[in-house]
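Morning run. Coffee first, then this:
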Amino acid sequence: QVQLVESGGGLVQAGGSLRLSCAASGRIFSNSIIRWFRQAPGKEREFVARINWSSGYTEYADAVKGRFTISRDSTKNTVYLQMNSLKPEDTAVYYCNVLVAWGQGTLVTVSS
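And here it is:
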């Protein structure tokens, strides 16, 4: 069973950047889809981005399109979320997911 550990969150000013990492232990099957979600205080968890592990095909939520980039490094069994031009509304706990496995989340706080 895959286990996921997120890292890279923190406090950043609006307009700044952060890169989140999602390290997976265990085998990720070639056609797996790895997703990033986020949950802001008082709100439901929402989809952010996803990547096909084998093809590298990506999709993004409209709210982050053009600002966030999801990528993967198969040699490190890690998925990244590069977040640029951050806005206060990006403040949330960010989670990665594959199949039924979820990480513990990493907090991103964007100050105005």
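The chain has a mean pLDDT of 95. Good start to the day.
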